[in-house]
Amino acid sequence: MRTLLLAAAALAFASPAMAQLSGVEQVMVSTVEDRFESDVALLERLVNQNSGTNNIEGVRAVREMLVPEFEALGFTVERIDQDHVGRAGHLFARHEGAPGTTRMLLIGHMDTVFEPDSPFQTFTREGMTATGPGIDDNKGGVVVILAALHAMQAAGTLEGANIVVALTGDEESVGSPIAEARADLLAAGEWADVALGFEGLSVEDGRDMGVTARRSSNSWELRITAGSGHSSGIFHSAESVGAIYEMARIIEAFRTQLPEENLTFNVGLAAGGTPAVLGDDNISATTAGKSNIIPDSAVARGDLRTISQEQTERVAQRMRDIVADSLPGTESTIRFSFRYPPMSPTEGNAALLARLNGVNDDLGLDWQEPIAPIRRGAADISFVAPMTDALAGMGANGSGSHAPGETLDLGSLTRQAQRAAILMSRLAAEER
């Protein structure tokens, strides 16, 4: 992995002290402030265009709204359609700067969880608070990217910067096969020295936090078959104990034997009976049964979230071992779907946060301590984190993500864009 100079990590152990912004950096600060209302107007237009992941034309409409924004900044824009994975596609914007300097990958997404049939469709504003579908996740983050790039352009630091902006169109529900849906992002990760993720800013007890790690997002599916018969024979040694007792044994063993730091696992659906059948949509099941019949089948589905690939593999194997230790007359199988990998904490990520805290010093802002990984879910930056130094949570601060009433603190657009513009400008000036 390419890492920042670890000497920068020493900043994390020093006392915060105010320093002087350069004249160029002061231009960036004032440019973000001056453009605030136009940035909010762009945010309103983006939010009012529905772009639920499955609304292919809606996601593409948002993409077309963004194309001229990046072209005006001197970026070469590529529309990457993803019909072959059942999704709208991505927008990649590329800016070639000075050879041999830091290559930066900025990551966000254009889709939301709110499909056209959702009653929550419209941007509204009260003072410095706004609500709307996807306003936090992740259209606010997209506006932060553009605001930071405009500030760099005004200050003259964009010209020499090597930047790829990757805005995916299916972050909320990745297309399949996932290797094809994320092939372009993975290629950009191989190119980059630094990746910045513009999902929402983490705030804890009123303090902005840094995100140097995020956990994986995987799923598992359990299927159990068992001998059936009259319930009067259920505990006889030659008879089956039934599928439901076996399912209960497995799930309770998960609960008692698996827990460890930074690991969570959930059972989101369970059904047992004669028969129990998982729906084709994977979010429903049908079952029937009688109290005097030993149930012949059971199904369950859940998730698995880990902080490292080692933890993923080790815990998955432990789950397989638990499942294999079957009760009499039963047979169980577990299948995993490994979707979003973890963004593990690394020295390079910590050094990158230290660089951001140097920016905070100069802006007179509080330092951003690293938030516990268990507080953040998976995101697209996780795909590239094994290849490069990565820092997430660079987007705006909101609340109620994925629910009607999703809200954004508009003031956070300003400080996040200022932080990003100065950090990227400093990195862009460094040789690699």
Task: Explain the overall architecture.
With 432 residues, the protein is α+β, with helices and mostly antiparallel strands. It has 2 domains: 6-214 and 344-428, Aminopeptidase; 217-340, Alpha-Beta Plaits (2-Layer Sandwich). It has helices at residues 23-34, 36-48, 56-71, 135-155, 178-181, 183-191, 243-257, 309-324, 347-363, 381-384, 411-428, and strands at residues 76-82, 87-95, 103-109, 124-126, 129-131, 162-168, 194-197, 202-204, 207-209, 217-226, 229-230, 264-273, 276-278, 285-287, 293-294, 297-305, 330-340, 389-391, 398-399, 407-409. A 6-stranded mixed sheet has the order 1-2-6-3-7-18, with helices on both faces. Helix 1 packs across helix 4 (135-155), helix 1 (23-34) packs antiparallel against helix 11 and helix 9 crosses helix 11. The radius of gyration is 24 Å and the shape is elongated. The relative contact order is 0.20. The model is unreliable at 1-18 (pLDDT under 50). Keywords: Hydrolase, Metal-binding, Signal. Pfam families: M20_dimer (PF07687), Peptidase_M20 (PF01546). This is M20/M25/M40 family metallo-hydrolase.
Structural class: alpha+beta
Number of helices: 11
Side-by-side strand order of the widest sheet: 1-2-6-3-7-18
Mean pLDDT score: 94
Per the CATH scheme, the topology name of the largest domain is: Aminopeptidase
Helix content: 25-40%
Q: Return the CATH class of the largest domain.
A: Alpha Beta
Principal-axis shape equals elongated
Number of domains: 2
Radius of gyration from the CA trace?
Answer: 24 Å
Number of strands: 20
State the major sheet.
Answer: 6 strands, mixed
> What CATH architecture label of the largest domain applies?
3-Layer(aba) Sandwich
Distance between the termini: 13 Å
CATH level 4 superfamily of the largest domain: Zn peptidases
β-sheet strand percentage: 15-25%
Q: Ranges with pLDDT <50 over ≥5 residues? A: 1-18
